[in-house]
């Protein structure tokens, strides 16, 4: 016991000496520890009586100044001065810390970048190919020497072209790291570049960016404008939405949630949504659903009190169904811990190809929604652990693999890989205007400007992007798609067996 006390004392002294102190204090402390240590060793000092002394000694710490991260706020002109882009924003990313190189592989859905650009891998992309996408594009974005220039061809619906704002924030996030590039962007819902029109070795499909695509189209999926806020529906920037939904998930435990499938939205945008309303509860039948029509005009008048996304995680199951094409509601629905009932759709955005049926969502037949939804809820209520796990897996995917840092990294890698394919040197097109955060945000007002300010990147990131994973080899990609198809067919077999058994009993 005496030997242990001696060892413990020596350790305490050593830890004490490692504190950052002034030199004079350190010298006194050193001799004090040596002197008392000698007494302990020869047995002339009772360590038990002295055990708390070291902890009680107050040692002044050296004043270490931590360099403050430089911030670059909006520099809005006042008076009648024309707004211009500031010249003092950094053009290079300063990476001086040892841990600034981020040796983290990007989430698996980044691998689809290679697939989306594969069609131009052999031929490259010429200026003529880019300009041939002009027919439906809303704007052309060119980056030359670290500056962004935009030429608009038409007005997009509401604020959909705010994806430009997102790219400007990416340039603040990774200053000087985007190469020169030239691209066309279509903000409408449905993809337009059909694969069947561009077959053979001499095919020259126009590269066109948009928010979704299909297996039969070549349009390149890009993060949608709502990641930086959607003023038209009072939906905040994605970083804030994620926090709110995470808190909303905590309010009601999964087992205490309403054991039905929930959907709220605008049915007028698509026939498939009007068909969904037939599955609502009625006097004659209950399909295990609770469906509500969202009137955005009325919501706007009432201050969006019934539209808070964090308040809509109250049911065990939530339904996702496409609109005119893919719907921005998808990520908000998946973020709830509720099991997502995903109505079959051919449209995909940039991240959903990283998700799988029975792992992140439950597939629902589009051609028999009501019976499919009723069975899904019945199955979930009889397999609560499995249903809860599916809901949580989707929520974790959205919270972790879809955080804003990865949104910027996805944009970074997609634009870099795209630029590698260009066979010409990008130049500023006639009529294009230089854009920056100031020229976009300063003239705005109201909630639109509020969301821009809230989503403004204030400082460059102090680490490198995540590492882009390699492309799929043909066999691995085929196996992945086959596995997902089998999972969907498995659900359909369970569903058919359920209804056959039920019909026989009746």
Automatic annotation (TrEMBL):
Tagged with keyword Membrane: yes
Superkingdom assignment: Eukaryota
Keywords: Membrane, Transmembrane, Transmembrane helix
Transmembrane domains' residue ranges: 27-48
Domain Glycosyl transferase CAP10: 177-425
Pfam families: Glyco_transf_90 (PF05686)
PANTHER family on file: GLYCOSYLTRANSFERASE, KDEL LYS-ASP-GLU-LEU CONTAINING - RELATED
Protein's name in the database: Glycosyl transferase CAP10 domain-containing protein
Organism for this UniProt entry: Erythroxylum novogranatense
């Amino acid at each position: 016991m005496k030997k242990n006390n001696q060892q413990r004392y020596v350790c305490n002294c050593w830890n004490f000496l490692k504190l950052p102190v002034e030199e004079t204090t350190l010298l006194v402390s050193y001799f004090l520890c040596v002197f008392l240590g000698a007494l302990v060793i020869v047995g002339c000092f009772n360590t038990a009586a002295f055990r708390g002394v070291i902890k009680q000694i107050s040692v002044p710490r050296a004043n270490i100044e931590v360099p403050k991260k430089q911030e670059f706020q909006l520099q809005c002109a006042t008076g009648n001065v024309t707004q211009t882009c500031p010249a003092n924003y950094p053009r290079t990313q300063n990476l001086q810390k040892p841990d600034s190189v981020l040796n983290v592989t990007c989430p698996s859905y980044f691998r689809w970048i290679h697939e989306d650009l594969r069609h131009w891998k052999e031929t490259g992309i010429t200026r003529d190919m880019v300009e041939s996408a002009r027919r439906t594009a809303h704007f052309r974005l060119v980056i030359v020497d670290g500056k962004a220039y935009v030429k608009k061809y038409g007005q997009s619906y509401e604020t959909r072209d705010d994806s430009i704002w997102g790219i400007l924030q990416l340039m603040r996030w990774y200053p000087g790291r985007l190469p020169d590039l030239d691209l066309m962007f279509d903000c409408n819902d449905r993809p337009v570049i059909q694969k069947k029109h561009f077959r053979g070795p001499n095919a020259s499909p126009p590269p066109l960016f948009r928010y979704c695509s299909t297996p039969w189209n070549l349009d390149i999926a890009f993060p949608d404008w709502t990641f930086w806020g959607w003023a038209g529906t009072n939906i905040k920037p994605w970083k804030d939405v994620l926090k709110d939904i995470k808190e909303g998930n905590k309010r009601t435990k999964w087992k205490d949630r309403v054991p039905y499938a929930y959907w709220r939205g605008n049915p007028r945008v698509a026939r498939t949504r009007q068909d969904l309303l037939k599955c609502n509860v009625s006097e004659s039948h209950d399909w295990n659903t609770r469906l509500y029509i969202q009137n955005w005009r009325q919501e706007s008048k009432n201050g969006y009190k019934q539209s808070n996304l964090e308040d809509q995680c109250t049911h065990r199951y939530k339904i996702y169904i496409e609109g005119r094409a893919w719907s921005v509601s998808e990520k908000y629905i998946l973020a709830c811990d509720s099991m997502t009932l995903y109505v079959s759709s051919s449209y995909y955005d940039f991240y959903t190809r990283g998700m799988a049926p029975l792992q992140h969502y439950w597939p629902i037949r589009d051609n028999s929604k009501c019976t499919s939804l009723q069975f899904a809820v019945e199955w979930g209520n009889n397999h609560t652990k499995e249903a809860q796990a599916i809901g949580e897996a989707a929520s974790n995917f959205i919270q972790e693999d879809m955080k804003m840092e990865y949104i910027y990294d996805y944009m970074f890698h997609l634009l870099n890989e795209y630029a590698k394919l260009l066979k010409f040197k990008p130049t500023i097109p006639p009529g294009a205007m230089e854009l920056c955060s100031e020229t976009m945000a300063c003239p705005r007002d109201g909630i639109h400007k509020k969301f821009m300010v809230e989503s403004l990147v204030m400082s460059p990131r102090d680490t490198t992007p995540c590492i882009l994973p390699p492309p799929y080899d043909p066999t691995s990609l085929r196996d992945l798609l086959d596995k997902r198809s089998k999972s969907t067919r498995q659900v359909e077999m369970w569903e058919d067996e359920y209804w056959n058994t039920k019909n026989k009993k009746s």
